[in-house]
Structure formats: structure tokens, C-alpha cells
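Ligand: zinc ion. Inputs:
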Amino acid sequence: MKVTVWNENIHEKEIPLVTELYPGGLHGYLAGFLKEEDVEVRTATLDESECGLTDEILKDTDVVIWWGHAGHHLVPDEIVEMVHGYVLRGMGLVVLHSGHHSKLFRKLMGTTCNLKWRDDARERVWTIKPNHPIAAGIPETFVLDCEEMYGEPFDVPEPQETIFMSWFNGGEVFRSGFTNVRGNGRIFYFQPGHETNRSFQNPYVQRIIKNAVRWACPVRKNLAIECPHAPALEGE
Ligand code: ZN
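Predicted complex:
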């Protein structure tokens, strides 16, 4: 399985705490724990040519992980269009945290993906589909002591499967981990992962991302969705 971790890599250059928590940047850190699995991982960032997402790289990628926040508007529409096409043809996509507002996720969901937010909250994650492959090894509930609150209403289409729900100490609730399918591509959105919090160091968060990559990995890649005129297979 081949995974490409995409990160805008902007906060890493501006806030020293980000690289203190996540040496090598969020992309490097995510790639680091994914390599503990039987996964071939590469990283790509906004500052690389074509955002590091060339046709050759995507052709050779089973699952893209997407982390963005301050630079959503800096990702060229042609790149979004290309990644979108790969998802429809079967490439898996795992969108983390503030990636909810990326052009790519909004295009795939077809909605604003707006939500409520507030920094520095205590989060309790609940596993509400314990038999789902993405929930393997995850307890019924676990706590993230400091994470950005994302609250409902979250303007996304009704998920195919809501696997995790979160409660925050301001009283808010949020569908914090859910799946959807677009075309032949499997998509998982997961809320924890603010750049100045420690959530990606949490073993359950890491397990969920590893599980999600396995779940999103296509059985068959590059399945074009066509609209052919079809001659009858049997006589009338
Ligand atoms: Zn954030």
C-alpha cells in the first residue's frame, strides 16, 4: 500500500511549537508513524512544484492524507481537480482536522463544510461503531486533554457511517470521524489534529489514522466512471 501525506507546511515555518511537537512537520510526523505499518509512505507539501502532487505520484498512490489550514486558497484549482478525479476513480482520501475547509473536501462533499470552532478545549471521543475496521483497537471512549473544539452543526452531507462522536467541555458535540464514498473512492474525515496540540502523539489517534488508511485503500485503482452507449447483451 502506498500513501502520500500532503501538508500545506505553513504553520511549521511560523510557529516553533509545531515542529517541537511534530519534528519534520505534520507531514513528516504522520509519515513517521505510518511507516510502523506495512505501508510505503511519501510526503508532499504546498511549496513543492505542483504541490508535490504530480500525475505520476498520484498514479502511484493508493491513499492521500490531507492536512491544510491557512493555505487552502493557495492550492491551485487544477491540482484540486486532478486529486478529485483520482478519488472518483478509486483513490482513498483521509482528511484531517482543518482539512474540512480544503477546496478538495468541499468539492467532494458539495457543501460549505462550515462548523463551530474554539481553541483549547477538552475533548472526549466516543466510538459509536465499534465493529467498524477504522475502530479496531480503539476503546469505547478516550480523552484528548487539549484540542480545538469543532462543533455541530457541521455542514456536510449525511455521512455513510459515523464512527466517532466527540463531546467538548463547552457542551458541544461533533461527528468527529465519519466515512463517505464519492465515485469509487472511499473518504474518511477525522477531526483531531490541531497543529499546536498533541493529538497526533496520542496512540489511539495514530491507530485510527492507520486503520483509516487501510480502510480507504482501493481494491482496484483507476476505475473510470464512464457513460457508454450499451448494446444489448441478449436478443429481444
Ligand atoms: Zn486547528
